[in-house]
Amino acid sequence: MRWYTSLRVFDPPIWSAIRPDRCVYLEQPEDVLGKIAAQIQTKFEQLPVSPGTSVMQPSPNTLRGAETNFYAEAVEQSFAIDMLGQSVSVTAKPVQYTWNYGDGTSLGPQTAAGGPLPQDRWGEKTITSHVYAQTGDFPVVLTTHFQGTYSVNGGPPLPIPGQGQFSSPAQRVSVWRSITRNYADTCLQNPQGQGCPGVAAPPP
Predict the structure, then answer these.
(1) What is the pLDDT of residues 165-189, one digit of tens each?
(2) Which of 105, 126, 132, 141 has its CB surrounded by the most CB atoms within 10 Å?
(3) Cα(first)–Cα(last) distance of the chain, in Å?
(4) How open is the CA angle 53-177-69, to the nearest 5 degrees?
């Protein structure tokens, strides 16, 4: 606040400033927006963002040595939070994906989420597919990287500097092997042939 003074003998008054200027608040002004900007990355990483979901084709089992198609499903999410007494709106947008296939290999981070294949094309190589070299059960984990923006009290959206990474629960994948045998006749011609009803399967 600025104060001015003038002697009564002056008509019209001649005003002179009284120095120094005075603050009308009991406390010094606080840079709330600056504090929010400094804390927003940590707050963003603590939000209950729903991680993306990894979908597998074929599922729930696949074959050793075959291309297994994985793709991610993730959506943009919005949150309303309170920071330092201010109303803050946060938007989280999925931008990158990382797959850990559970066999010691991984893919990403990359921007491609992949996509589904029609059943008659299962086994084709895609930008997110994976080939398992061994049989067994493997835990597949998808980590989705979200980019955030925030606005304070309805103001313009501002970028959050870093990304938030959110991982889905492990999804078990069972990898099987396939065995191919050729036969010269049918079960009607040779009822004791391999694969016919009542005939034990050959050893692996």
Answers:
(1) 999 999 999 999 977 777 778 888 8
(2) 132
(3) 92
(4) 30
Residue 152, H or E segment: strand 136-152
| Contact of 199 with 193, CB cutoff 8 Å | yes
| Secondary structure element (H or E) that encloses residue 107, with its range | strand 106-110
> What would the two tokens of residue 196 be?
């016919």
State how beta strands 106-110 and 86-100 pair. Answer: antiparallel
Q: For the beta carbon of residue 173, count every other beta carbon within 10 angstroms.
A: 23
Cα distance between residue 140 and residue 60, in whole Å: 12
pTM of the model: 0.73
Which parts of 18-173 fold into alpha helices (H)? 32-45
Q: Which residues contact 35 (CB under 8 A, 6 or more apart)?
A: 84
